[in-house]
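Provenance and format

Records in this collection were gathered into a single text stream. Each protein contributes a sequence line and a token line. The two records reproduced below are adjacent in the stream.
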Amino acid sequence: MTSPSPSLPAKIFAFLCSFGLATTVLSLLLLITFLGTLEQAEHGLVVSQARYFESFFVDRIDVAACLRALAVKDIGKFELPLFILPGGYTLMAVLFVNLLLGGIVRVRKSPKTIGVIISHFAILFMIASGAVTYHFAKEGILSLSEGQVSDEFQSFHERVIEIEKVPASADAKREALVIDEASFTDLGGAAARRTFTHASLPFELTISQWKRHAEPRRVTDDRGDAVDGYFVQERPLIDPKTGQAIEDEKLFSACLATVKAKDGSEQKGILWEIAAAPWTVTVEGQKYLINLKHRTYRLPFAVRLDKTEAEKHPGTERARRFTSWVTKITNGHEEKRMVTMNEPVRGGGYAVFQSTFGDGMEDGTGVKSSGFQIVENPADHWPLISCVVVAEGLLLHFLMMLARFIKTEPWRFAIGFTLAFNAAFALAMWKLL
């Protein structure tokens, strides 16, 4: 007598929680990590990360860059366009489902498997922390000179276009309309353009010819895209001196902008990230500032840089330790703190890390400065919690197996030993800190 064939839902469930699927996903994760690491040498961290680890599917593989990174052969330029290789986002989502169904739902529930279940749950928690970080974390830079105070920081990579109406008085509250980068960074083609409108604006704004790395250049010939004798000149993304990709935060994008008033009159300008001032237009007697810049975020507290110092390794220019003494100002309350490498200042859900140091010699001011990396991550401590829970689960599983081997009561032996180990670990950490 033959057993009935499993239903379609049962087959799908068996496939999603199978070891075969887990092995395939882990192999593909290893592959995209290998390719992404190779391409990072030429394309930079941000581009490689977006292509391989933050995408649903890998759109192309730069075979030539990979071969050059391996020092195999320089074949010039050769890319393999494909959409069949899943990206890191897709693979981690599939791995989450596989672990949930296979490691939590399907696994046999018994005292023998309690440690394994705890470990699987912790790994799921770690994957979830990565998703929360990707979707909700904010990261940027706050640069201060000694004595300077600020409660705003700029995003490392997220660019926006701000439209601000110049207030009638200096005391008036300043407000700006913000156009997210997803709405204009695809306008790189010569004919690509997009128009933006808002009920509060007496004009429409058209953006075109966006370049990720560019600068305004004076026109030397007849060009149809020139504005006041200048055009947007695209610059290479590779540093000609080092042959390496230029870091994204050191790229300065630019684009063309056209303001069309309701009466049909037009004003054209060039938006550039590091322009000395925003582009100013006058429509119906009112001035507006239009600016291309990195997105600005506000902190729930202000930071004043009181003093900063840099230690270097003897006989070298390589940084050994950056240290900044700051004052954290929250609703008028001042708190003296010290920020150094791997020792951030935390507050209001934000972490302030020491990032860079300036001695004031390059700009000739002689005023020391510090750059602070600002991170707001709701899942900041989730990976640490996951690692601790994984360790606890594996320890519990090992102790229960050991108890059965030495023929003693598993639960009493495992729980007692685990509690004693945790107490000793907590005491050691307390003494060290």
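Adjacent record:
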Amino acid sequence: MMILYSGTTCPFSHRCRFVLYEKGMDFEIRDIDLYNKPDDISVMNPYGQVPILVERDLILYESNIINEYIDERFPHPQLMPADPVMRARTRLFLYNFEKELFVHVSVLEDQVARADEKRCAAARSAIRDRLSQLAPLLAKNKYLLGDEFSMLDVAMAPLLWRLEHYGVDLPRTAAPIQKYAERVFSRPAYIEALTPSEKVMRR
């Protein structure tokens, strides 16, 4: 059985929980206190971070790597495109999300960085600007890749859920993003994947 070591408020762990529930398979989630992590976390992941997936002798970390493994191991429903070209483009999108969006999320999640208000304000501004650029795409498409729910939506959902929590206000022109977010949040697997601590992040 797969075991996911997951931070109860960690957006990256949230992605992995979302995928596990989408797949509807047997797994165990072990909640980790992000501010008082057990010693074995650093043994399993040299960077001392969650999420971590353990299955027999396999230990994986980094949410996108974990999620691709789960998707290949349990291919229904398929979350990465079957076509190699589209799959490569999806990986590039995921890479861009990490570089352009989630690098700023990491600032807002970091206890030390949160004390630097100028740095946090810059992170919020960068998130707002980057998300606003996606609005025209989501005005036309149901999901980020079109009509099909995919790994891109999984990657994005935890950030969209936390916008209010992070103090990020989207402009009115970003209304398509809010509608898109509601579509993703209404998925049964998304609702199941939320921890009690995450549920209270959003009114």
